[in-house]
Amino acid sequence: MKTKELCYICGAPDALSYYEGRSETIKVKGMERRIDNLSGWECEVCGDGFWDPENDSADRYGEAKDELTLAFRQMIGAEMKRIRRKLHLTQKEAVELLSGGGHNAFSRYERGELLAPKTLVLLMRLLDRHPHLLADAKVLAEGADMRGAFTYTKHDKAESLKTS
Ligand SMILES: [Zn+2]
C-alpha cells in the first residue's frame, strides 16, 4: 500500500493516494465502454488525478474514449445523411446550400471523419422536423456568403476614359 502524498496539482498535503483494480464505465448517447483494472493516483481534495504511468491504464482508457468519440461522430454522421436524403439533396447541394466549406465537407461529416458544427446539426434537425422550410432556406441562402458575391468586369482603356 502506497502512502498518501502531497498533491502537486492543488498543493494539499497527504491528499494524493494510489488506487488499483478500479473499473469505470464511459457512456455517451446510449453507448458505453467498461474499462477494468485501472490504477492511478487521485487527490481527495481537488478530485484531480492521473493514471499509473507504470501500466497501460491510460492507454486502455484512451482507446475506449476514442472508440466512443468515433461512434458518436458516426452516429451524428448517419443522422446527417438520413436528413440530407430526406430533403433530396446531394452532398454537393448540401454543401452549397447549408454548410459551406470544401466540396467534400458533407461527405466527411457523414462518414464521421469530422464532427459537423453544432449550428449545422441544429439546422439539419430543424429541416428534418419542418422539411417545407427547405424552400425558404434556398431563398434566404442567396447572398448569405461570399460564394459568387463578386463579379469582375474588365474595361479597356478607351472605355474607362470615356466613362470616368
Ligand atoms: Zn489536489
TrEMBL record:
GO molecular function, one term: DNA binding
CDD domains reported for this sequence: HTH_XRE
Pfam family, one: MqsA_antitoxin
Ranges where the HTH cro/C1-type domain occurs: 80-134
Source organism superkingdom: Bacteria
NCBIfam families in the cross-refs: CxxCG_CxxCG_HTH, YgiT_finger
Protein's name according to its UniProt entry: Type II toxin-antitoxin system MqsA family antitoxin
Originating organism: Pseudomonas nabeulensis
